[in-house]
Amino acid sequence: MHRGWVGDSGAGHPEAEPYSHRNSMFTYLFPQLLKLQKPVKLSLLGVHREEDRQEVLRYFRQYPHIELHIPLNRQWQDDDWVYRQISDFDVGLSILNNHLFNHCKSAFKLKQYLSVGVPVIASAVGENKRFVKHRYNGFLCHKSSDILMALEAFASMSQVDYKRMCEATCVDHEKYSTDTFCRKLLEVWTMRAGLPSGVTIVSQTPGYQD
After folding, report:
1. What pLDDT is recorded for position 197?
2. What is the DSSP letter of 58?
3. Would you say 91 and 42 are in contact if contact means Cβ atoms under 8 Å apart?
4. Calpha distance 207→203 (Å, rounded)
5. Radius of gyration of the CA atoms of the chain, in A
6. 205 against 104, higher pLDDT
7. In the chain, what are the domains?
């Protein structure tokens, strides 16, 4: 099964380390992946320094059942590239440590997973809790052992149950679509500016939601 993670691993700044994706991966996600007995493909989209890539490769060196895909030529400005990568995931990973900075994040990457029908394993931190329905469109994890439980659940899940979970990701598209957020933003602007109501917007990004 193909697990995928998207996000900036950082540039090694000490002040950002406590809330960084790197911290979350090495502290919470990676140790649980080592405990899996079945083969795993892990894609990490967001490791942009060769030294960080080598650090991850060293971490998993003695675990040949974990296949790593860590591209350095990220094409973040090309939405088609990003969504092609995500749509190849079987499970999207949104593991965050319990830091105030992460509580204030918008869960954007998690929404990207869900928007293309990829169920998720997510920490119960911040906005993640608004969009993940536990055991419906993914798993919400409150502690490290929950991450292992979720990884094992997906590994042993029947095709019927997995398909049902994938289909569940599409039910709440309206909650995290670009059109919805644009309409809400326009409603606020209209109200604040005292403009007439009824302003509409047409999506400029056909083919998928973000």
Report:
1. 59
2. H
3. no
4. 10
5. 18
6. 104
7. 2-172 (3.40.50.2000), 177-210 (no CATH)
pTM: 0.82
Query: Strand 66-69 to strand 91-94: parallel, antiparallel, or no bridges (unpaired)?
Result: unpaired
Average confidence (pLDDT) over 138-144 = 97
Q: Please count the other Cβ atoms lying within 10 Å of the Cβ belonging to residue 131.
A: 21
Q: Is 112 exposed, middle or buried (0-12, 13-18, 19+ CB in 10 A)?
A: buried
* 188 burial via Cβ count (<10 Å: 0-12, 13-18, 19+): exposed
**How far apart (Å, rounded) are the C-alpha atoms in residues 51 and 96?**
22
Instruction: Provide the β-strand partners of residue 2.
Output: 41
The closest of 19, 12, 14 to 95, measured between CA atoms, is 19
pLDDT at 136 over 50: yes
Tell me the CB-side half-sphere exposure of residue 54, using CA atoms within 13 A. Answer: 3
Element at 108 (helix H, strand E) = helix 108-115
